[in-house]
């Protein structure tokens, strides 16, 4: 595949429509969305709390990849990581992860985790290659405080 040039920028709420298109470009990303947290208002709240740890890869005026990473002052979580299918296997995802990790380190964060669907084998392999270990000694517990947000499986 031909290498395509792109630039990196910090994500702002002005990028919302393009982010939403990107997330809807793949079934795996689309199924991770919910109508409250991933609405314009939800992402705006997220970016206000995490202005320095969210990045987009841009080619021309199109967002081709993005990572939304935030923290609570102690631990970080990667909430959304997506590269458009036409731009995969070019190192964009690894580049975005590296930028997010460096930004988190600058904010004093020493540990980061992410959630990946068990059946998303390509993503699980990617995260393994990035040095993210699989925690089998924990149960992920979830409770929705809003009836519009499904509790999950």
List the helices and strands and how they pair.
Layout (H helix, E strand, L loop, with lengths): L6 E4 L5 H8 L3 H6 L7 H10 L4 E6 L2 E10 L4 E8 L8 H15 L5 E3 L6 H9 L24
Parallel strand pairs: 4-5
Antiparallel strand pairs: 1-2, 2-3, 3-4
Overview of the molecule:
The chain has one domain (7-129): Gcn5-related N-acetyltransferase (GNAT) (Aminopeptidase). It has helices spanning 16-23, 27-32, 40-49, 92-106, 121-129, and strands spanning 7-10, 54-59, 62-71, 76-83, 112-114. Helix content is 31%, strand content 20%. The relative contact order is 0.16. The radius of gyration is 15 Å and the shape is globular. The longest helix has 15 residues, at 92-106. The protein is of the alpha+beta class. Helix 4 links the parallel strand 4 and strand 5. The mean pLDDT is 91. It has a 5-stranded mixed sheet with strand order 1-2-3-4-5, sandwiched between helices.
Keywords:
single chain; 153 residues; alpha+beta; Aminopeptidase; 5 helices; 31% helix; globular
Give me the number of helical elements.
Answer: 5
Can you identify the CATH class? Alpha Beta
Radius of gyration equals 15 Å
The biggest beta sheet reads: 5 strands, mixed
Q: How confident overall, as mean pLDDT?
A: 91
**Number of DSSP E strands:** 5
**Spatial order of the strands forming the largest sheet:** 1-2-3-4-5
Label the CATH architecture: 3-Layer(aba) Sandwich
CATH fold-level topology? Aminopeptidase
């Amino acid at each position: 595949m031909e290498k395509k040039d792109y630039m990196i920028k910090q994500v702002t709420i002005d990028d919302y429509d393009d982010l939403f298109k990107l997330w809807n470009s793949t079934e795996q990303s689309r199924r991770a969305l919910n109508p409250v947290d991933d609405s314009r208002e939800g992402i705006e709240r997220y970016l206000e709390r995490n202005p320095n740890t969210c990045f987009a890869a841009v080619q021309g005026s199109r967002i081709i990849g993005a990572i939304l990473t935030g923290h609570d002052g102690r631990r970080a979580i990667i909430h959304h990581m997506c590269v458009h299918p036409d731009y995969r296997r070019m190192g964009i995802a690894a580049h975005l992860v590296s930028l997010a990790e460096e930004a988190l380190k600058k904010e004093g964060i020493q540990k980061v985790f992410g959630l990946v669907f068990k059946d998303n084998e390509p993503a699980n392999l990617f995260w393994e290659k990035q040095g993210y270990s699989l925690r089998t000694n924990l149960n992920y517990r979830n409770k929705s405080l809003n009836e519009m947000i499904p509790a999950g499986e």
